[in-house]
Design a protein that fits this description.
Blueprint lengths: L2 E3 L8 H5 L3 H4 L1 H16 L2 E5 L5 H11 L3 E5 L24 H12 L4 E5 L18 E4 L4 H14 L3 E4 L11 E5 L7 H12 L6 E5 L11 H6 L8 H21 L1
Parallel strand pairs: 2-3, 2-5, 3-4, 5-6, 6-8
Antiparallel strand pairs: 1-4, 7-8
Length: about 260
Amino acid sequence: MSSGIGKKTAASGTAFWKGTILMGQFERTALLIGDEGIAALRKKAVAVFGVGGVGSFAVEALARAGVGKIALFDHDAVAESNLNRQLIALHSTIGQPKVEVAAWRIHDICPQTEVLTFPVFYTAENADEFDLSAYDYVIDAIDTVTSKLLLIERCKASNVPILSSMGTGNHADASHFAIADISKTSVCPLARVMRTELKKRGIRKVKVLFSDEPPLKPRVTDPEKRKQTPGSLPYVPSVAGLLIAGEVVRDLLKGENS
């Protein structure tokens, strides 16, 4: 069910990355977070659930930041409708598993990064197969409410930090995104549902990305399609994914320095 793409990091610490091709690759990043920051990120493992419009950009930023191990969870294949917003979507990748395309990109960005691919839809039936405690952080970019709730529950039970993406569809202004506790969210319909359901489960203090921009109405004549398929623009979910990756990297470095 899983496959490792790329090579495992042979060693950790400043001496490792400064003595390899990674020295040039992370030189600009080290100017801001230091050699010790690069070394710390090379030792971190992050799991990303959902490698679509939000998740694909989060994955890319994590790889370029230097996170040493990235696990990818997504059951879907690249489709033509993904071309407008997903980093992994090209005419040449249509029909290919999203996790494998994303893994190839990571490997090409940094061959020393370890990548695990899980082409699965995360559900109660298979959740026990995955040990979330193996990761330093989890990113939730899943579309389905039941799977999002389950993943948050399991992360809380494993004491693993998680950042959950709320809705990015039907939005046109990426400047409305913010990262906050779920209790501080407003406007976002998905966040409203998640707040209610998490409260029922007694779960508090969940960090999320959300938008306070009122959702736009898709310009379609089929009411059923309007309910099922939200509209999207290339510069909205991409910004959400990058914001999430930035927050995760900062949190990982804070944990290292605390």
